Amino acid sequence: MDHFLYRGGALHAEDVPVAEIAAAVGTPFYCYSTATLSRHFRLFDEALEGVDHLVCYAMKAASNQAILKTLAALGAGMDVVSGGEYARARAAGVPGERIVFSGVGKTREEMRQALEGGIRQFNVESEPEMVALNEVALSLGLRAPITLRVNPDVDAKTHAKIATGKSENKFGIPIARAREVYAEAAALKGLEVVGIDVHIGSQLTDLEPFRQAYEKVAELTGMLRADGHDIRRLDLGGGLGIPYTRSNEAPPLPTEYGQLIKDTLGHLGCELEIEPGRLVAGNAGILVSEVIYLKSGEGRDFLILDAAMNDLIRPAMYDAYHDIVPVREPAPGAEQAPYDVVGPVCESGDTFARARMLPPLAAGDLVAFRSAGAYGAVMSSEYNTRPLVPEVLVHEHQFAVIRARPSFDEIINRDTIPEWL
Ligand code: LLP
């Protein structure tokens, strides 16, 4: 459920007509709903009620300061994957003890930054990283709390580019070698082993792969405890999928996911962490765009928008489906026709949808891409020197620009000219 609904024939974000925001801000722009963000965060928090837990929002999904502050106020921790994300989380007021640091290639500089600034734990992904973190911690006279990310060799049954739990993926330590690597970690004085971490992929629409992974983690917890490690925290990653189409069967709900976690791991007495990103932000955001031209092609009609692949890369990159809806509600029973929905960027990959059935649309009409809140704005670029699109946050009847569109001068002045030119 989200808070982007038609009211009186016009698409609203909570209590604000989307067309009103477009008139004030210009198109294209991202628009987020506070109520949806909050609701989705709380669903996870409630799903783990009764067990000691922390929901660490995977801020790579959408990391605007206003979004982070909204979630932090609800008690969210953060999952960060770079020094930049760590700095963003701290700037939004998230204390170090609520930040977990994931990622396969943390640099020594990033380790130092997080150790000095405060960190709940590093999720370590390899032996060389473990050795580096030990050295950095010792040089600062500190001990770094760690989990080791294990790779359970489970097929997440999702798009190949976002599956991370198979042995051929670059992530984690093969679970078969975990006992050996934990023994090495325990011998390093700059590290304190606190638990186990696992994350098998994103946009999972079936609970079975999670079950397989979590059962393996439960078994490993027993083995590591028998080896003398104090395993007291389990980080279970993110990955629960969202419905991108309204016709598709809905993915499992956070409550069902929470129940699975309790069933497979609840008996271990560990503190549990989860790192949802997409389900918190995905359906809490839309990308609003204006139709520039309607162009008749050979046997097809192109709907040319002012948004492009640089603003929303997911269709080009993952063949992702995003629902596209007119901002003015179509008349009941309005006839639909197939359109190829494209942007102005100079490549054929700049295609959002082919033969998409849509009600009649004309130049100047506004459309909204639904489910664009996660991995939308954060993956955008200024390719073709198209300014990064602004972000807007709605809260009931109010809205605010939370990232402004840069001017052409701002973009150009980021470049500097060497003195020989
Ligand atoms: N934890 C770790 C260690 C991750 O790598 C990820 C996502 C998450 C949590 C959050 O997963 P989520 O709950 O959002 O599924 N750009 C792609 C998705 C990349 C996901 C990367 N890792 C897309 O647009 O589909």
In terms of topology, how is this protein built?
Layout: E1 4-7, E2 10-13, E3 16-17, H1 18-25, E4 29-33, H2 34-47, E5 53-58, H3 65-72, E6 77-80, H4 83-91, E7 99-101, H5 108-117, E8 121-124, H6 127-139, E9 144-151, E10 173-174, H7 178-186, E11 191-197, H8 208-226, E12 233-235, H9 254-265, E13 271-274, H10 278-281, E14 285-296, E15 301-305, H11 314-318, E16 324-326, E17 337-342, E18 351-358, E19 366-369, E20 391-395, E21 398-403, H12 408-412
Parallel strand pairs: 4-20, 5-6, 5-13, 6-7, 7-8, 8-9, 9-10, 9-11, 11-12, 12-13, 15-17
Antiparallel strand pairs: 1-2, 2-3, 4-14, 14-15, 14-19, 16-19, 17-18, 20-21
Helix pairs in contact: 2-9, 5-6, 8-9
The structure holds ligand LLP.
Residues 58, 61, 79, 102, 162, 199, 202-203, 237-239, 275-279, 314, 318, 375 line the site of ligand LLP.
| Total beta strand runs | 21
Q: Determine the strand fraction and express it as a percent band.
A: 15-25%
CATH superfamily of the largest domain: Alanine racemase
Low-confidence stretches: none
Mind telling me which CATH architecture of the largest domain this is?
Alpha-Beta Barrel
CATH fold node name of the largest domain: TIM Barrel
Distance between the termini: 56 Å
Tally the structural domains.
2
Tell me the major beta sheet.
Answer: 9 strands, mixed
Shape label: globular
DSSP helical segment count: 12
Radius of gyration from the CA trace? 23 Å
> What portion of residues is helical?
25-40%
Name the structural class: alpha/beta
User: What is the CATH top level name of the largest domain?
Assistant: Alpha Beta
Which ligands, by name, code or SMILES, are bound?
A: ligand LLP
Nearest-integer average pLDDT: 96
